[in-house]
Specification:
- With 325 residues, this protein is α/β, with parallel strands linked by helices.
- It has helices at residues 19-32, 43-49, 82-94, 106-119, 143-164, 179-188, 204-211, 232-242, 264-283, 302-305, 315-323; strands spanning 6-11, 36-40, 52-55, 99-104, 122-127, 167-172, 192-194, 220-225, 248-252, 288-293, 296-301.
- The protein has a 7-stranded mixed sheet, sandwiched between helices.
- The protein binds 6-O-phosphono-beta-D-fructofuranose.
- 6-O-phosphono-beta-D-fructofuranose (F6P) is lined by residues 14, 105, 129-131, 173-175, 226, 258.
């Protein structure tokens, strides 16, 4: 039996639709199983400043369908310092919090892993990021909603692209991962996607332009994964220079991709992994992320979850190529 009595919960890094559903699930499953729940505000910042309060089931009423995170979130600089983490640990001890559930992406779970190792503390991660870049889980909380948001935006952009017979480069988020770009391109019927996973030695723009836009198609949409140097602007400028006959426009979707009500799929993922986090604590698991693979809840060591090489299904590139002729 685990000796854990009180569980802390926080959200960290970029917010993602479904984080509230995860907060609700951890809180309710925790209380159902006899634990006390304490909510930490503003991610690791709140651990350092002691911005912590007890949560009851009422605190999470009516939030399953809300976007963002009621706990607020932050990318904490303080937590990257030894002093900051020590202060965080001291606050956890003084608040009687024996285990911490961290809902966040790669950076947040890396922080959880280091903290767990440094203080021999029980940290459980939930995959909360729109990027879908955590290893060992088929999907992350927020990814499905964001993909649907992108598809809705692209459907609208297509109306104007077709009316004006233009090429549109639509830039989407994903940090270093192309899951959002590739899959939203397939789902919106875009003509191409430019993604980091396909960038080695290949000029993706040249490949696409050489393939030729079908004569009967006078407009097209290319989804571009965000990138500091080679985002949508870069490719639009290249087309303007290399193929001056085309009328080119850029649309950077930006943070609207992170907002909005979570999809049913994200709510279910958040609910099952939230319940899985409490189950993990009861089982005495430590320093794992709760994910889902083939519809089964799985426990992935944090050190594995944060790997940067989550497999990307290259068949999806072929799917898009064949269907965009
Ligand atoms: O990790 C989520 C994410 O939305 C990335 O896709 C994006 O690169 C980044 O966060 C943006 O971060 P911020 O909101 O701090 O600008």
């Amino acid at each position: 039996m685990s000796k854990i009595k009180t569980i802390g919960i926080l959200t960290s890094g970029g917010d993602a639709p479904g984080m509230n559903a995860a907060i609700r699930a951890v809180t309710r499953a925790g209380i159902y199983n006899g634990f006390e729940i304490k909510a930490v505000y503003r991610g690791y910042e709140g651990l350092i400043t002691g911005d912590i309060k007890p949560f009851t089931t009422e605190n999470v009423s009516g939030i399953i369908g809300q976007g963002g995170t009621i706990l607020k979130t932050a990318r904490s600089k303080g937590f990257t310092t030894k002093e900051g983490r020590q202060q965080a640990y001291d606050n956890l001890v003084s608040q009687g919090i024996d285990a911490l559930v961290v809902i966040g992406g790669n950076g947040s779970l890396t922080g959880a892993m280091l903290f767990a190792q440094e203080f021999d503390y029980c940290c459980i991660g939930l995959p909360g990021t729109i990027d879908n870049d955590l290893y060992g889980t088929d999907s992350t909380i927020g990814y499905d909603t964001t993909m649907n948001t992108i598809v809705e935006c692209v459907d609208r952009i297509r109306d104007t692209a077709q009316s004006h017979e233009r090429i549109f480069f639509v830039e989407v988020m994903g940090r270093d991962a192309g899951f959002l770009a590739q899959n939203s391109a397939i789902a919106s019927g875009a003509e191409a996607a430019i993604i980091p996973e396909d960038s080695t030695n290949v000029d993706q723009l040249a490949r696409f332009m050489e393939r030729g836009i079908r004569k009967s198609k006078r407009s097209c949409i290319v989804i571009v994964s965000e990138s500091p140097k080679c985002g949508a602007m870069y490719y639009a400028d290249r087309v303007r220079n290399e193929f001056p006959d085309y009328d080119v426009r850029v649309s950077i979707l930006g943070h609207l991709q992170r907002g909005g009500r979570p999809s049913a799929r994200d709510r279910i993922l958040a609910s099952s992994t939230g319940v899985g986090a409490i189950e993990a604590i009861i089982q005495g698991q430590r320093n794992i992320m709760v994910g889902v693979r083939n519809n089964e809840v799985v426990y992935v060591p944090l050190s594995e979850a944060i790997r940067s090489d989550k497999p990307f299904d290259k068949k999806l590139i072929k799917v898009l190529d064949e269907l965009s002729i």
